[in-house]
Write a structure and sequence with these properties.
- The protein is flat and about 50 Å long.
- It has one domain.
- It contains six helices and no strands.
- It has 149 residues and is mainly alpha-helical.
């Protein structure tokens, strides 16, 4: 009976220790260290491919054939953001969001110029203005969370 009580006490202690450890939030360093390597590998591959696509589009733009709507740059920024989130890299998250905001602001200026000559409607401008504001909110949230310990 004495041995059974000892075993039960040890088992309860181990369960309590495991429950406490499971409830402890992971830090960003721990999150990066424990990321699924297959997932991270796929995210890295996405970033690499998005980078190639953005570069190819940039070359096409210079020769007058590419898209200037920011689609490729936004997709690259989003891919970089996802990878940085998975790795728990706050600075890289902020950098990706800053890049996305730059693209959105450029799109807004382009839409305003097109609206001045009648090639875009005021609603088109407002739609992109909302996208700029949303990008600013995402960036501010990321900056605020990166300033926390």
């Amino acid at each position: 009976m004495k041995h059974l009580s000892t075993i039960i006490i040890i088992a309860v202690s181990l369960l309590a220790a495991n429950a406490t450890r499971a409830q402890t939030p992971r830090t960003s360093a721990a999150a990066g260290a424990s990321s699924d390597s297959a997932l991270v590998g796929k995210l890295r591959e996405i970033v690499t491919l998005r980078q190639k696509l953005a570069e190819a589009n940039e070359r096409a733009v210079r020769s007058g054939r590419g898209e200037t709507d920011g689609h490729y740059e936004l997709a690259l920024a989003e891919a970089r953001l996802q990878l940085a989130r998975e790795l728990g890299q706050r600075k890289e998250q902020v950098a990706a969001l800053e890049d996305a905001l730059k693209v959105q602001r450029r799109r807004l200026e382009d839409a305003k110029r097109r609206a001045e000559v009648g090639a875009a409607s005021p609603e088109d401008v407002d739609t992109i203005r909302v996208e700029v504001l949303e990008a600013e909110v995402k960036l501010l949230r990321a900056q605020n969370s990166s300033n926390r310990p």
